[in-house]
């Protein structure tokens, strides 16, 4: 209960602290590549996400057998929740876009940060697909879920993009309790697989 209260206090404090920074932050130099622009925009949100996990007192172990390829990559998780997005987006080196529920955009300050980060609003699969393609064409990696509205493996095969499967363990132990939430330290593991490009149907038939 104490850790959960600390998390709430931390979130409120960081949001208030970064309010002025959000509205004073100038858009990155348009002469920079889109990826470099997003790297600058993501600096504060990444630190915020890391802090949300870190305040739990959890031990985080990263397993990455080899470097992530340069260029746009699809980070694919079996089931993305808030802890999984915070872990992946907060701990990978490059900025990576993701999909969020439209209701989150209505929250004060958080909604403005999501807009600045070009986070994709969850909507029809056709609109989401087009938004994802737009970001990928600009060189932005994406964090997608296997149970989402877009099949990331089919997308990767169609666009010849590398896929990095991500597995997380221990996130279910972070929050306990149904009525009174308790934030508990957990042993969390984040495993990144070797990157691969899924074969398309045409390649399989050849």
Task: Give the SSE order as H and E letters.
Answer: HHEEHEEHEHEHEEEEH
How far apart the termini lie comes to: 58 Å
Unreliable runs, pLDDT <50, ≥5 residues? 1-14, 201-206
Main β sheet profile: 6 strands, mixed
Described by the principal axes of the CA atoms, the overall outline is: globular
Mean of residue pLDDT?
Answer: 80
Structure, described:
With 206 residues, the protein is an alpha/beta fold. The chain is 42% helix and 18% strand. The protein is built from seven helices and ten strands. The protein has helices spanning 2-24, 34-54, 82-91, 110-116, 125-137, 152-159, 201-205; strands at residues 59-63, 74-77, 96-97, 99-100, 120-121, 141-145, 163-169, 175-176, 182-183, 187-192. A six-stranded mixed beta sheet has the order 1-10-7-2-6-3, sandwiched between helices. Helix 4 links the parallel strand 4 (99-100) and strand 5. The longest helix has 23 residues, at 2-24. Residues 1-14 and 201-206 have low confidence and may be disordered.
List keywords for this structure.
alpha/beta, two-stranded parallel ribbon, 42% helix, globular
Task: Give the arrangement of secondary structure elements.
Layout: H1 2-24, H2 34-54, E1 59-63, E2 74-77, H3 82-91, E3 96-97, E4 99-100, H4 110-116, E5 120-121, H5 125-137, E6 141-145, H6 152-159, E7 163-169, E8 175-176, E9 182-183, E10 187-192, H7 201-205
Helix pairs in contact: 1-2, 2-3
